[in-house]
Amino acid sequence: MTRTFHNALLGLTIGCFAASSGWARCADHVPQPKPQNTARDVVGTDLDTIQERGFITFAAYEDFPPWSYEQDGKAVGVDIDLGRLIAEDLGVEARFKLVAAGETLEADLRNWVWKGPVVSGSVANVMLHVPYDSAFACRVEQVVFTGQYHVVDIAIAYRKAAYPEDPPVPAYFRFDTVAVENDSISDFYLSAFPGGQLAGNVRRYPVMADAMTALAQGETKAAMGTRAQLEHGLTPDLGLHAPPLPGFAAGNWTAGVAVHFAYRPLAYAVDDAIVAAIGDGRLEQIFADHGLTFRAPELR
């Protein structure tokens, strides 16, 4: 998981606590400027232009297996396959730009959806794998959040030999080592709960793939992260489960896509393509092809 998601999900966690305290959704919201396109500075592209020119561009996070990453010089992953599915439904070619995560989700949306980066690069027509939260969505008015396609949840992978009877829960990590991606939401959770008692046994790695490699090699007894990232690194010696996580307000969330606010027909078309792919099983098959568990969101 990228830094963007860590920061975004921490924000969603705070939002959950705020909601439980009775704060009205977006009660403190201040309307934002919505830059309009001009002939010389076009941000995004409308659906008709995309279909006329014959291709659609997607922004996807780099080094983010199993969702999006480069392999043998090509973009691969679940999100890449999803982009191709959307493009096929629109009757155009899919083109991808793998982008680095910024400090915040707002920065990524500004850079790749509605404004463009300060130095080099340009916006994409659609940004993939954007975590959805209704309060956050009403605050970022330059973007349409749509196309929810998968429920992401936090799980624990473990060495079966280390836990032959009962899979581990967070309390076990007072004594046992656990691998996490550095500065991830799992890292923050385990380091703080309960009262920092687990912090000494948390082993941090640059990316989740490294954490799973360490687990597979016996450097730790367990690893904690998003289910898909854990499943991507499973070996026959490893198990996986998703136990209750006390005090974890953001243990699961929905991934969707983002489109510039001025191009709602494009957003509707992308959403229709995703809903159809969920309904007829094509999206579940993409997950199965990558060895992952698909969890469909509630369609609204």
Descriptive tags:
300 residues; alpha/beta; 9-stranded mixed beta sheet; two-stranded antiparallel sheet; 10 helices; disordered N terminus
Walk me through the structure.
With 300 residues, the chain is an alpha/beta fold. The chain contains ten helices and eleven strands. Residues 1-8 and 10-23 have low confidence and may be disordered. The protein is globular and about 60 Å long. Strands 1, 4, 5, 6, 7, 8, 9, 10 and 11 form a nine-stranded mixed beta sheet that branches. It has a two-stranded antiparallel ribbon with strand order 2-3. The chain is 34% helix and 23% strand.
Q: What is the number of helical segments per DSSP (H or I, 4+ residues)?
A: 10
Class from helix and strand fractions? alpha/beta
N to C succession of SSEs: HHEEEHEHEHEEHEHEHEEHH
Distance between the termini: 27 Å
> What is the number of strand segments?
11
Radius of gyration: 20 Å
Helix content: 25-40%
How is this fold's topology laid out?
Layout (H helix, E strand, L loop, with lengths): L2 H18 L26 H7 L1 E7 L7 E3 L2 E3 L1 H13 L2 E7 L5 H10 L11 E7 L1 H6 L3 E17 L18 E4 L3 H8 L9 E4 L2 H9 L5 E5 H6 L5 E4 L10 E9 L3 H16 L2 H8 L11
Helix pairs in contact: 3-9
A few lines on this structure:
It is built from 10 helices and 11 strands.
